[in-house]
Amino acid sequence: MLKKILVANRGEIACRVIRACRELGIPAAAVYSEADRAALHVALADEAYFIGPPAPLESYLSIEKIIAAAKQAGADAIHPGYGFLSENAAFAEACLDAGFVFVGPTPQTLRLAGDKLGARRTMAAAGIPIIPGMSAGAAEARDVLAEADRLGYPVIVKAAGGGGGKGMRVVAAPRELEESLAAARREARGAFGDDTVYLEKYLARPRHVEFQIMADGHGQTVHLFERECSVQRRHQKIVEESPSPALDADLRARMGAAACAVARACSYTNAGTVEFLLDEEGRFYFLEVNARVQVEHPVTELVTGVDIVKTQIVIAAGGRLPFRQEDLSQRGHAIECRIYAEDPATGFLPSAGRILYLKEPRGPGVRLDGGIYSGWEVPVHYDPILAKLITWGATREEAGRRMEEALREYVILGIRTVIPFLREVIRHPAFASGDTNTGFVGDHFASWRGEVPEAVMEKALAAAAVDEVLGGGRAAVSASGEGAPAPSPWRTIGPWETGRTG
Ligand code: ADP
């Protein structure tokens, strides 16, 4: 087994990976930037290494600094989490060259999965259905116009090196095409250093259904069934669940087989996700491979009983998958809500600041993967995900009710979060009946402004006051018990404004 793992990430996923390491009895080393000196992942880890200024390029995205920290820590493996360097082939290569085990696929697989156009070509050759569109980068505007005409509007412009919705533009009519191409190119160049863009047909209200895959280095590849991730804002997921209400046993088996075929086509090892779009006629199309642990992996963990992060580590250490396809099944239903520090009333703009009060939900079937505590200053420099709330139930209805209750109990004061919005999503009749597609938020919440009734705020303030009297609202204490509790905001902070988070 591995001797020490450096966790090259921050926030909730760093905490998640550190917990997996502790369970396996492997010491975990954290890294942190200037903005994260007091972060929860630093307190949770066995040791922590400073890697520079808050700007990601100078810390969490610096291959050199991460490798130096791993050497200093005497680690023998590096877990990249998601985001940052997790899908960077050059990073995986640098880890291997420096003698570290990289907890993820090979650099070759990362290179293939990271090139959306290359992946489209590989999957088409392997007989996997792909979304109609181009198989090479767009060149002359004239050719792109002709291709868009052939596909029929609307079309979507995508960056070949894309991710996180960047460099993506939906184009409804020919007159918008040239401008959208230029804008997508600019954005792609800024974000990925590569302005190659291409066109796909923009499918009408598809569902986003993805399959978790796992493969070891001994030739075994399995899928851990699907996750439905159709509730999205700005083409990015916010609520996920498993199983998908849209799949029957036959479609699930066909999509699962396709996901494993995708994994084999790119010689996949470790954990990954094969994303598909599913149209209203039940046809599915390959979207992309996410070659890392996925934000929404907990819903799969809750329905299959497999610990994906621990299994990633076992595979990276050269072990075999501890299960076969026929050992896996889905039990019950799980739903995840991503808790972002964003203000839904302003089109989901990030909201940084100090968390003045935090009360996390508990109860049967409730799991919370968090990276925050009361008194913590949420930095402006990173992805605004604070935590993930996941509920499990014997049925979808039970998981949904547990989620509704858990969101009602969840209080974060001081910054704006998406919690009030999520409460409405979960309660919405279309969600309750499983009638979701990627147009869900636009269709049902386009004009949602989220005025929270006074009563909710009063309840939150009362809860905060009671908690303070009872001695709560303290910072997390480090694993070794040495972390100093943060001063209570109720005593030390002057006038402040509450977030409208209820
Ligand atoms: P990124 O990697 O930037 O997140 P993806 O290619 O994974 O981008 O797509 C993200 C989301 O955008 C999908 O889940 C879906 O909602 C939407 N989308 C992408 N491509 C299409 C398409 N061809 N038709 C309809 N929706 C699409």
Describe the model.
By secondary structure, the protein is α+β, with helices and mostly antiparallel strands. The chain folds into four domains: 99 residues, Rossmann fold; 155 residues, D-amino Acid Aminotransferase, Chain A, domain 1, CATH 3.30.470.20; 70 residues, Dna Ligase, domain 1, CATH 3.30.1490.20; 134 residues, ATP-grasp fold, B domain (D-amino Acid Aminotransferase, Chain A, domain 1). The chain has 17 helices and 22 strands. Helix 4 packs antiparallel against helix 5 and helix 12 runs antiparallel to helix 13. The C terminus is likely disordered. Bound molecules: adenosine-5'-diphosphate. Adenosine-5'-diphosphate (ADP) binds next to strand 8, strand 12 and strand 13.
Count up the helices.
Answer: 17
Oligomer: single chain
Radius of gyration: 22 Å
CATH superfamily of the largest domain: ATP-grasp fold, B domain
What CATH calls the topology of the largest domain is D-amino Acid Aminotransferase, Chain A, domain 1
Small ligands present: adenosine-5'-diphosphate
What is the structural class? alpha+beta
> Share of helix among residues?
25-40%
How are strands sequenced across the largest beta sheet?
Answer: 13-12-9-10-11-14-21-19
User: Separation of termini?
Assistant: 46 Å
Beta-strand content estimate: 15-25%
CATH architecture label name of the largest domain: 2-Layer Sandwich
The rough form would be described as globular
Query: Total number of β-strand segments?
Result: 22
